[in-house]
């Protein structure tokens, strides 16, 4: 089931985003469109502004110019809290985990479960048991061989740590999932599990934004491909029509946007 | 372990005055066969530290506590608790407020010490208009206030009474600064005061290290000859500085005597259960290199005989 | 990872307890008065003020901050509550609440400066340290406030359990520690305090209102300093404008001895109680041994290093 | 990245200078004596001891450490050098070297405890603070040492440039700052100090002997405290066992006001000089204005916050 | 030029390495062999112990058991300094850069250049100009569009930061280069530049250890493939003989070591 045609409604949209860091212009009038029920891959060279784009979309940075629309309504995220309230979950490239805290704590950070009844409502006690059980279930989905959910994240290997962040986003998203290079540190098996997870999330009806440098991964799951280049959107491609090498050509600037065959655009 | 245990609590560890007091107590205790425990607050004004030290000494078996109260009022409830347990508490150096908070008081009168040097300064100035700098202790310290206000009283200026913890500031006082009783800070304070008003001609200092600092500053400014410095304490170094003309006059106090009297009283109490009572003034003497008419003072030879610290 | 933190060895949760027990064992061999219920009760009373201040300090240090103003704010609180009760003739309970309100306001001021203007906590609290000190001196005219109503010093009174006198203030302190420990360990907000200290950016990105948590921590710390003010009034029976001058360093020492990292995010609040007790036990034990006061300072210096070093070396050995 | 550090806003390199200039401008309007060469020279003399201590403290803070013992170690150094020169009758130069050797040894001890046993610098220096204090008091019997040979106080003398008196000690301090600044900025070892503070693990992995650098920093800091001891002797003309008690906090304040991060790895050493000057200018200017001491403390508290806040807000505006 | 046969001399060798972290055994008797002039890929699932292995080989951790031989001589690395002295340069997975320092400073960290003459020898002054010039040259090799070498590393994008670490190792290695997932955060173009760089290093005669989860990359450059599994070496494969899918099967444990055709082993 690969949903999303060009007519599916726009869930998340951005127009003319600009973000400057001192001298550096990370986003230079970038547009963005995410349609309902699709997996949108975002690709581009290093420094093309992919992370900056999704940081703007998830409230982690406030863009200097441009507007963001959620379900067609203009929206201003002043902080990640606003985006989370709107149901947008994000896996950041620099992982955004608290190293000294356990895996279970990191999974539920900011969405802790409370015990039922008096203990939870009045004493506001955490339901550590339940969170532990759910953590195990979530991490098992990804088939990472982590022995204990109560070990601090800082003792995990690079890939294991990434799985924690991915599992968290997938578990809690209500509206949109954004993942910035979720498979970068993952092994072949674990990478495939994450792709599988992304598909499952999409199949639940949530659109997914996937940033990745891994072209086979992108072509395996993406419904459309957003190519970022020099802080702008260079093109949106249809992976069913365009070849991998042409995609890379567009990405690196070897093929100009005008030269892309019209049926390859999405 | 039949020897009587006596606790001595000073305001700080570092002031030579208290160090001498401890020495005096240790000697007396040795002579009388008593065991001496010593303790102190962490800093001047540290009441809680003194309370803790007192409790610990009583836990260690002390039946007599000698204390130089850092805070004359604040220590009273804790002393009351101790006395209720049958412990003899004697205030040394300065009284509690109220004075009957302790069984007895062996002390000098800091206000009077100030008055003496105030009178001396006034007589020496002989009617010349005074521009006074005061190098005080630190904000909120009773001894600092007593000496300061006593000095102004003795000089015949508008002042406050002996109970006040505030510093009077008549027009003649052109600069007030805190020295923390420390030489380096006294020097800095004096330097800044001279910048503020180069015509300063009388300097009151809280103690002799501060006076030495003030002298340094004045000397650097070429004013050491024309400015009168008065101080309080009467430590041997201070008397030396007085003899050398750095300090014009100082009010001498007697820590060794207080401590020895305190230990004696404690041993007596252990033997006979007899408690001393009331206020015993251990005295204060004005020491000056040059006597002036109308003010009773002793010269520095006498001062050296009676001084505390390293002679 | 946050490599900086790796530099500060995590003093194991049990380390401080072992150091405390070792100190106790040592003093017990030196003086038979040491291990009596009465003496230990005394030590508890002596640490109760610093102990409660250390709760607030721990919260702040857990967020990678520091509070230099804690002692002075406490002194201000005790002056306010005693002056209100005596000079203004307020009912004691109301006066106490006013005192706590003042310390809490100082916490709020610290917190706003840290969160809104993003000043380093060290600078902010250095400033409020001076401000609180000056206000205390000016408002009290540097006079100790005496003749307090009985009710205000009630926490200093004791009751007897099994022949040992226990002060109500000690019970209050232990209660506060339990509450703080529970809240930090078992509630979401408590875990967020750790998270903010451990990795503020990661915590912000997960959508936790880090600024509000930081602000809350400073306000709460101010509240604890108010309680400490009440305990100090109860313990000494007066409102003392010169109180609190050594409590800054003492409280930070207790927290660090208790194993909380100055870099934030790591530590157990009960450790701070143990840290405060270590300091109190040293002072008490050395006096019982009859060590003279300058030597006490020397020995304390050596023992502090030894206590933490023993802990550290035993960790290494077990690795 | 090291998210913790992002919390401490980098006070721009120019910020402290602007704060200093603002303070100077303010005091100049309040007192026409303030902006005289003589007065400014005096301020420099008043900060020279803290200024030199702050060099050592900056080095340590740049490695994410902290040194609470600095003032006490300095006091010990000044007592040792003056006692050796007077009582033992050593030639002054040799006595000074002995004093500096003692402070350097204390630095070495701090460094060994931090690097070998991996104790937190806070605890180590808290311990050595107490130890140095006790040794100072015991060795000097709490007596000030006077009647020093001329040579020892030579750095306190002044020479005249363009009508303004300048103390040799101030020249020495400025010289040391320039050397430290050069070494930190232009030599490999200097950059390694920053690297160790910024990311100890990364620095270790690039094959830099981080432990040796840390140790070197503590030893060097001890050496600077020895120089500060000499300056303090020169300034006051005596060996004062009670010196150094407020210098701990003063030196750390100077470093932080100067823009160095307490989390290490970020800062410019010349900022510490500016920070020390800010403190000195406040004290001098407020006395010139005739502000009484409690109000001075109040004003200092407010101004410290304002100075850093203005800096911080101006940064925000320019972003 | 793909050198290295099974007879080339062993440069770096490890036997029975064991490394435990508390309860977790990261290395469980791992062997390792690197031959002169070869590119050895190390692959394995997340948590298989790859990073732990190379940390032991580069002195970053001291193994609990086992021995390491350099050029056939037993050697004990007590710290990364020892390994560096022996000419082994490593790119660690967690990048090991000092975030507040500039790119140029990071490149030359621990190997700073001094000015010639008095300034350098006596005053020990750094030659910042020369280091800057060399930094630009090194980074240009990788074709990363970084504007200024004097910007702090913390302002770089994830991939740019990785390039700094790679450039450093390649520039300074004398004997062996080890790279732990150097291409993980890199774009297609930049990833290819790094592979190219790795080949160039090998062609200079230095053997390279490349840890990667990117199978196409591995098959593109590796002379032999070391498969890590559960803290051990599961097999050493010959990429010219074995297929990518069989390799993945060995890695995940789907194919047992005994079942690998003998000619696929290397
Ligand atoms: N905090 C910052 N300060 C300064 N510059 C920044 C900052 N964050 C990003 N940049 C710059 O903005 C540009 C875009 O960065 P961004 O992280 O969005 O790239 P990216 O497309 O995600 O790259 P990559 O694939 O390497 O992750 C880069 O040139 C980077 O150096
Ligand atoms: N410092 C540590 N403390 C505790 N456990 C650790 C530590 N470092 C690694 N481990 C554990 O050792 C095992 C091997 O880790 P290692 O980093 O070597 O794996 P890896 O093969 O590099 O994985 P990845 O591909 O995800 O980077 C993992 O289970 C990890 O959790
Ligand atoms: Mg990115
Ligand atoms: Mg790894």
TrEMBL record, chains A, E:
SUPFAM superfamilies: P-loop containing nucleoside triphosphate hydrolases (SSF52540). SMART domains: AAA. One of its GO terms (molecular function) is ATP binding. Keywords: ATP-binding, Cell membrane, Hydrolase, Membrane, Nucleotide-binding, Repeat, Sugar transport, Transport. InterPro entries: AAA+_ATPase (IPR003593), ABC_carbohydrate_import_ATPase (IPR050107), ABC_transporter-like_ATP-bd (IPR003439), ABC_transporter-like_CS (IPR017871), P-loop_NTPase (IPR027417). CDD domains: ABC_Carb_Monos_I. It holds the Pfam family ABC_tran. PROSITE patterns: ABC_TRANSPORTER_1, ABC_TRANSPORTER_2. PANTHER family: CARBOHYDRATE TRANSPORT ATP-BINDING PROTEIN MG119-RELATED, SUGAR ABC TRANSPORTER ATP-BINDING PROTEIN. This is ATP-binding cassette domain-containing protein. It comes from Ideonella margarita.
From TrEMBL, chains C, D:
CDD domains: TM_PBP1_transp_AraH_like. Pfam families: BPD_transp_2. It is a multi-pass membrane protein. InterPro entries: ABC_transp_permease. Keywords: Cell inner membrane, Cell membrane, Membrane, Transmembrane, Transmembrane helix, Transport. The chain crosses the membrane at residues 12-29, 49-81, 93-114, 121-139, 159-184, 213-234, 254-279, 286-310. It is found in: Cell membrane. This is ABC transporter permease. The lineage of its organism: Bacteria, Pseudomonadati, Pseudomonadota, Betaproteobacteria, Burkholderiales.
């Amino acid at each position: 089931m690969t949903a999303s045609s060009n007519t599916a409604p726009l869930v998340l949209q951005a127009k003319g985003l600009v973000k400057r860091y001192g001298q550096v212009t990370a986003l230079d009038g970038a547009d963005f469109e995410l349609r309902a029920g699709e997996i949108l891959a975002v690709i581009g060279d290093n420094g093309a502004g992919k992370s900056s784009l999704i940081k703007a979309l998830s409230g982690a940075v406030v863009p200097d110019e441009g507007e963001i629309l959620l379900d067609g309504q203009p929206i201003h995220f002043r902080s990640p809290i606003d985006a989370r309230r709107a149901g947008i979950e994000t896996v950041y490239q620099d992982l955004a985990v608290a190293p000294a805290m356990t895996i279970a704590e990191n999974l539920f950070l900011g969405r802790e479960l409370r015990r039922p009844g008096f203990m939870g409502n009045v004493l506001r006690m955490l339901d550590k048991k339940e969170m532990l059980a759910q953590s195990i279930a979530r991490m098992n989905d990804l088939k990472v061989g982590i022995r204990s959910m109560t070990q601090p994240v800082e003792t995990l290997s690079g890939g294991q740590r990434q799985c924690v962040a991915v599992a968290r986003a997938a578990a809690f998203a209500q509206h949109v999932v954004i993942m910035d290079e979720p498979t970068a540190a993952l092994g072949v098996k674990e990478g495939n599990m994450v792709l599988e997870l992304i598909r499952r999330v999409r199949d639940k009806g949530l659109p997914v934004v996937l940033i990745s440098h891994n072209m086979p991964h992108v072509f395996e799951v993406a419904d459309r491909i957003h190519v970022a280049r020099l802080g702008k959107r260079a093109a949106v491609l249809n992976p069913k029509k365009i070849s991998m090498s042409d995609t890379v050509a567009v990405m690196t600037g070897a093929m100009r946007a005008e030269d892309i065959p019209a049926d390859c655009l999405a | 372990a039949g020897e009587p245990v006596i606790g001595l609590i000073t305001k700080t560890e570092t002031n030579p005055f208290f160090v001498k007091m401890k020495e005096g107590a240790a000697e007396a205790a040795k002579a009388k066969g008593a065991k001496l425990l010593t303790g102190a607050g962490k800093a001047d004004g540290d009441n809680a530290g003194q309370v803790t030290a007192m409790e610990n000494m009583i836990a260690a078996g002390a039946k007599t506590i000698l204390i130089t109260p850092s805070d004359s009022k604040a220590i009273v409830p804790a002393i009351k608790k101790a006395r209720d347990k049958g412990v003899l508490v004697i205030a040394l150096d300065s009284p509690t407020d109220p004075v009957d908070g302790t069984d007895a008081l062996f002390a000098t009168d800091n206000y009077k010490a100030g008055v003496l040097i105030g009178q001396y300064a006034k007589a020496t100035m002989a009617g010349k208009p005074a521009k006074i700098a005061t190098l005080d202790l630190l904000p909120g310290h009773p001894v600092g206030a007593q000496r300061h206000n006593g000095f102004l009283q003795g000089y015949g200026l508008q002042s406050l009474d002996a109970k006040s913890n505030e510093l009077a500031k008549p027009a003649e006082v052109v600069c007030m600064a805190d020295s923390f009783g420390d030489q380096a800070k006294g020097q800095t304070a004096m330097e800044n005061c001279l910048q503020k008003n180069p015509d300063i001609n009388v300097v009151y200092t809280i103690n002799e290290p501060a006076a030495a600092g003030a002298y340094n500053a004045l000397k650097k400014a070429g004013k050491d000859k024309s400015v009168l410095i008065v101080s309080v304490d009467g430590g041997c170094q201070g008397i030396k500085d007085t003899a050398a003309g750095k300090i014009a006059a100082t009010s001498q106090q007697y820590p060794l005597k207080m401590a020895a009297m305190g230990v004696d009283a404690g041993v007596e109490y252990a033997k006979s259960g007899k408690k001393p009572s009331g206020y015993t003034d251990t005295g204060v003497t004005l020491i000056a290199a040059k006597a002036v008419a109308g003010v009773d003072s002793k010269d520095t030879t006498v001062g050296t005989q009676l001084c505390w610290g390293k002679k | 990872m946050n490599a900086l933190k790796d530099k500060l060895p995590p003093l194991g949760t049990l380390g401080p307890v072992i150091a405390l027990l070792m100190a106790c064992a040592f003093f017990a061999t030196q003086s038979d008065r040491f291990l009596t219920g009465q003496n230990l009760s005394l030590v508890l009373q002596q640490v109760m003020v610093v102990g409660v201040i250390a709760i607030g300090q721990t919260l702040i240090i857990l967020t990678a901050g520091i509070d230099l103003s804690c002692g002075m704010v406490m002194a201000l609180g005790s002056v306010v509550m005693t002056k209100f009760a005596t000079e203004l003739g307020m009912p004691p309970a109301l006066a106490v609440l006013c005192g706590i309100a003042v310390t809490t306001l100082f916490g709020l001021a610290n917190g706003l400066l840290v969160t809104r203007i993003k000043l380093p906590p060290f600078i902010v609290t250095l400033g409020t340290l001076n401000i609180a000190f000056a206000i205390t001196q000016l408002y009290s005219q540097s006079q100790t406030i005496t003749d307090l109503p009985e009710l205000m010093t009630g926490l200093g009174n004791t009751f007897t359990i099994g022949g040992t006198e226990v002060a109500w203030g000690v019970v209050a302190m232990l209660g506060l520690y339990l509450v703080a420990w529970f809240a930090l360990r078992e509630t979401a907000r408590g875990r967020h305090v750790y998270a903010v200290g451990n990795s503020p950016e990661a915590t912000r990105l997960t959508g936790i209102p880090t600024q509000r948590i930081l602000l809350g921590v400073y306000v709460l710390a101010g509240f604890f300093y108010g309680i400490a003010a009440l305990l100090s009034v109860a313990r000494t029976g007066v409102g003392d404008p010169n109180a609190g001058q050594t409590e800054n360093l003492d409280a930070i020492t207790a927290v660090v001895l208790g194993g909380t990292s100055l870099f934030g995010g790591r530590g157990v609040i009960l450790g701070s109680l143990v840290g405060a007790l270590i300091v109190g036990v040293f002072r008490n034990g050395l006096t019982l041994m009859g060590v003279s006061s300058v030597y006490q300072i020397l020995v304390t210096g050596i023992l502090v290093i030894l206590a933490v070093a023993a802990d550290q070396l035993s960790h290494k050995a077990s690795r």
